[in-house]
Design goal:
Layout: H1 3-10, E1 30-32, E2 35-37, E3 45-49, E4 52-53, H2 68-84, E5 89-92, H3 102-112, E6 115-117, E7 119-120, H4 133-137, H5 140-153, E8 164-169, H6 176-192, E9 196-200, H7 203-216, E10 223-226, H8 234-242, E11 246-249, H9 257-269, E12 276-278, E13 285-286, H10 300-311, H11 316-331
Helix pairs in contact: 2-3, 5-6, 6-7
């Protein structure tokens, strides 16, 4: 198959018609904002993107701070463009208390023709600005119950179920609250099979999270090290992947193209492409800025990064692994408990 044929066909899976928000069947599924989906239909997947964010803080965030129609109008063309360049699934990683809005995502998913995945969990990075007060008072078990409830009954009455767990931790040694969030994520995974995606400040924090998950009885392949490109010690990427961890290089853009190619090549040379994820961390409508500020589109990875990988010697099968097979394994609901 020629390169153009691959980019246009091989990593594209059609959207399947399905009823919304029904209980998932017994077979393996991935949760999208329009309901459970056969993971084989996810197609080419961006694992870390945003549509809307509000950085005002957990105590002030509210849907009353923005015009929903304005957000919809601004985001939709970028999502449609992603479909045109070959994208079929977008994982929207904005957590609760930073602007998560599953109903908005469902509306956009229907019109753009994209599968969209949302999340449960709390974000402990940025010095805990986005952690709600009750998270400090409640034990990890109670936080996990909240997140499991979203998985079982839907988010905030919407009927929309999360497809991943999203948490975040600051660099270095885990703080008490960050460790609690990770432990709650582990408990939630063991009950739901949702993969844990953690905004991770550096390699020290990544290694501590993996150790904590191991203590909780959760395998490394239930965990995504988000923003791994920010860790300069490449051997830590390899060490994490060897423990089963998903190593995610996001933030891909024009200025970082060469760096990200090198990072992916380093994983591939060690036989660890099967533990590698890529995305752009693009978007988004920024609440508080005029008309949402500058919106960075989602098409660069498909239109520039993937062709560059092919030029650098990666095969079409490698791209299939990176964009289709790896995300499919991540998003398929499956408990990964250690023996």
């Amino acid at each position: 198959m020629h390169r153009r044929e691959f980019l246009e066909v091989a990593i594209v899976a059609p959207l399947a018609p399905r009823k919304e928000n029904l209980p998932p069947p017994a077979a393996s599924v991935a949760n999208t904002v329009l309901g459970p989906l056969d993971p084989n239909l996810l197609g080419s997947t961006l694992m870390h993107e945003h549509v809307l964010v509000d950085f005002i803080g957990a105590d002030k965030v509210s849907t009353s701070r923005y015009n929903l129609d304005e957000v919809y109008t601004k985001a939709l063309p970028h999502l449609k463009q992603l479909y045109l360049v070959g994208g079929r699934t977008l994982v929207e990683c904005t957590p609760a208390y930073i602007g998560r809005n599953p109903s908005l995502l469902a509306s956009l998913s229907k019109v753009a023709g994209l599968n969209v995945v949302t999340n449960t969990g709390y974000y402990g990075a940025a010095e805990d600005k986005f952690v709600p007060k009750h998270a400090y008072q409640e034990p990890a078990e109670q936080l996990a119950k909240r997140w499991i409830q979203e998985f079982e009954a839907g988010i905030e009455g919407s009927g929309i179920r999360p497809g991943i767990i999203k948490v975040g931790v600051d660099p270095g040694k885990l703080s008490e609250i960050d460790a609690k969030l990770v432990w709650a994520a582990a408990l939630t995974h063991l009950k739901t099979g949702l993969t844990i995606a953690s905004h991770t400040g550096d390699g020290v924090a990544a290694m501590q999270q993996l150790a904590l998950l191991e203590k909780a009885g959760v395998r490394g392949d239930a965990f995504i090290w988000v923003h791994a490109q920010n860790e300069s010690q490449l051997e830590l990427h390899l060490h994490a992947a060897q423990k089963g961890c998903w190593v995610e290089f996001d933030g891909i853009g024009e200025s970082s193209l060469d760096t990200h190619v090198k990072l992916v090549r380093n994983m591939a040379k060690r036989g660890l492409l099967g533990q590698t994820l890529v995305s752009q961390d693009s978007g988004w409508y920024h609440v508080g800025e005029p008309n949402g500020g500058e919106y960075r589109g989602y098409s660069f990875l498909h239109s520039h990064f993937l062709p560059e990988l092919l030029k650098q010697g990666f095969s079409e099968a490698d791209l299939q692994t990176l964009m289709v097979e790896n995300p499919k394994r991540v998003l398929t609901l499956r408990v990964r408990a250690s023996d």
